[in-house]
Amino acid sequence: MSQNTEILKNVRREIVHSTQSYDSTIKKLYSSIGDMAHANWGSIAKEIKSYDKQAQEFFTSKIEESIGPHGFMIFQEFNHGAWLPLFVPNLKLKSTRIILGNPLIAITMLKHDTSAGLYVPVELLLEEKEDGGTDLIYITPSNLIANESIEGKPDELRKAAEVLDEKFRALVLWVAGQEN
């Protein structure tokens, strides 16, 4: 058995606070990425029958139809707020983890290092706060994908991950009502 361990350094966890209610915040996010009732990643992936140029063009067109105005689509969500009160009775605040991404952005990294697939699509946690606002919490993708402490990562991978950082942060700030 072989084992290799890499220790990541300087991973940034971002917390963006919004004064918007949780319900307004998640509704705004869904308006850009879609919601689970309209998630179609699974059906797009199932349509892959070959790996020729025509299949690639078909896949690309289906993804482009599915992504929202900020360039992302929903893949999955986990409503932690639905079950947490079973174990923490006084915790009545909403909390949802959402997996979102864009395969056309992901490929800009995966073509350099398939292990980047551990971190794309990206994750966003929305947490209702007692002040009536919402925290949007995420890990800066490039800190995981092209971490400086891992040797041998190509510059192209880092640059592509930084583009993802910018696009993801722009979406988060827009959802939080803090866009420039």
UniProtKB/TrEMBL annotation:
CDD domains: DUF302. InterPro entries: DUF302, TT1751-like_sf. Residues 94-141 form the DUF302 domain. Coiled coil: none annotated. It comes from the Eukaryota. This is DUF302 domain-containing protein. It comes from Glarea lozoyensis (strain ATCC 74030 / MF5533).
